[in-house]
Amino acid sequence: MIFYSWTALSDANPASGQASVAMGITDDRGRAMRAGEETLDSGRALLVIIEAVRPAMAARTLAPCYVSTGVGWRGRRNGSGEVAWERFFMRVDPADTFPAWVPGRMGP
């Protein structure tokens, strides 16, 4: 089963270490996009990142968690004020401090 984790950031550069202003998880990508768009509409966020995740268990503790599938979407306001979503793929490597994002050419 796939879930969609969304995080709204106040800084357009996710690597800057800015804290998130809102986040959530849902089983519907459209719902995640609408929640992210509401946060962008409020002016509290400049960027929303949605990641497709799957349920898992942490190796050492067996605690439930979510693991990235490597597919995500970035949402930002465009020049006309609407939210534009860009699909991306990332290398999922636990040794990385921050995942490497690779823009995708497919639509949302």
What does this structure look like?
The structure is a single chain. By secondary structure, the protein is mainly β. It has one domain. Helix content is 13%, strand content 48%. It has a six-stranded antiparallel β-sheet, with helices on one face. The longest helix is centred in the N-terminal third of the chain and has 14 residues, at 29-42. The relative contact order is 0.19.
Briefly summarize what is shown.
The chain is mostly beta strands and 108 residues long. The chain has one helix at residues 29-42, and strands at 3-9, 20-26, 47-57, 64-77, 83-91, 100-103.
Tell me the radius of gyration.
14 Å
State the end-to-end distance. Answer: 19 Å
Q: Helical proportion?
A: 10-25%
- DSSP strand tally: 6
State the low-pLDDT regions, or none.
96-108
Q: Averaging pLDDT over every residue, what do you get?
A: 83
Along the chain, the helix and strand elements come as EEHEEEE
Question: What structural category do the secondary elements indicate?
Answer: mainly beta
Shape: globular
Number of helices: 1
Percent strand:
over 45%
Name the strands of the widest sheet in spatial order.
2-1-3-4-5-6
Taking the sheet with the most strands, its summary is: 6 strands, antiparallel
Q: How many structural domains in the coordinates?
A: 1
